[in-house]
Amino acid sequence: MPETFDTLTTRLAEIQDLRKTGAILFWDQQTKMPGAGAAGRAEQLATLHRMAHELFVSEETGRLLEGLRSYEDSLDPASDEASLIRVTRQDYEKAARVPAELESELTRAASHGVQDWVTARETSDFARFLPALERNVELKLRYVECFEPQGERYDVLLDDYERGMTAAEVRTIFDRLKEELVPLIAEIAERDDPSLEEVTRGTFPVERQRELCHDVIRRFGMRPDSWRLDPTEHPFASGAGVDDIRLTTHYHDDTLEALFATMHEYGHGLYEHGVDPALDRTPLGSGVSLGLHESQSRMWENLVGRSRPFWRYLYPTLRETFPEQLGSVELERFLRAINRVHPSLIRIHADEVTYNMHVILRFELEQEIVNGRVELKDLPAEWNRRMHEYLGIEVPDDAHGVLQDVHWAGGGIGYFPTYSLGNVISVQIWERVREDLPGLEEGFERGEFAPLREWLGEHLHRYGRKFSPKETIIKVAGGPIDPEPYLRYLRAKHGADGSL
Length: 500
What we know:
There is one protein chain. The chain has helices at residues 3-31, 38-56, 59-67, 69-73, 80-95, 100-123, 126-145, 153-159, 167-189, 196-199, 206-220, 257-273, 290-304, 308-321, 323-326, 331-338, 355-370, 379-391, 417-436, 440-444, 450-459, 469-477, 484-494; strands spanning 227-231, 237-241, 244-249. The protein is mainly alpha-helical. It has two domains: 3-148, no CATH class; 167-494, Neurolysin, domain 3, CATH 1.10.1370.30. It has a three-stranded mixed β-sheet, sandwiched between helices. β2 (237-241) and β3 (244-249) form a beta hairpin. The N and C termini lie far apart (56 Å).
């Protein structure tokens, strides 16, 4: 192994250390930091991102990569070494187009934006958030221009989260989803399944919810002393390496949504936790794309966490935890309540079927923002109009509408499509898992989650970013992204002759 390769890996490890330190500072900002620390935190994060960016795009990094071309050609393309050089070069060529000062400004504006969003959401006042959004969009458009886009400008932003995918490809998938989901939602609307609030009595004390959420993660499985779970405003997963997984959730005393949010974030955390430790502190040491990442969170939240086998196992524990609320509620009624399909205001609380319409709405608005077809000040009205058109819902205020998600506050334009892409991919992978593990769901009834966890680790998680997102999907699911398995699943579960 040439000395140049060792020099490169040492340099990349230092860069990853800076980036992971930034991730921990962001986690702290969202979970522990006093609100008054926001301005200082924005500068700290901006400094770290600028330092990491400058170190990565420096001439020295380029020289090291250039000096490894012949060595790369001699390697098996699937080896860790060849993958590291290849992916690093792709990242370098993209990052080198972005000036360090712009990278710093993007981070600073995102940090300020998140704090402004929290305040605006608390007061349900979009006008208080508008200046931060305008700044984020301005910077994102400057970022797009760094790449001199030949196709759609939105492709540049989407590529940050789902490398190699285009807006046109997403539209094709989403058009197919809309074609099937709109009539399916109308069909289901004729049913009258109860909500969880309707079948339970009283509230769910937060302390008992917290204990239950920790218990479920322990049952699902992760190495001891490698994770933690904390409350936050908008649930997310973060961390500083394969053995430092930070999960978050949000507790409401009138619902059990925190439990499902926790299972969702567990899927994200497990993906990062399962990456081959040999890839840690390198550009390969994380999930390959947000679509694949979301496939894991939605799998644990929905395909496991809302399934009959899982609740045959866990429901006795749930009733023991909340006897006053659920002691008289039969399992069948509970299952129908947690799987109820009903248009609702909040994306993260939406059911499996209507959830995708929330994502499609945001995807459409993001393209209009990037292409200047909608004034930012008009976003609340346009949001509300589409919520009524797509889901028949009247939005009462900004907090339950355009301000409900943190993504635009943090500069995450291009992120939203990956949620529904994750839904689609999750079922493609699920079908493959069930072929390989025919007793999988019967095992859930006995609390056996290791077979699923280990299958995912072996076939997906351990690879990190060694292969492209499209290559990874083919590797783990047996073919390219395809909405049909997902649509079959929804019809089989929620349609007129559904199994639920």
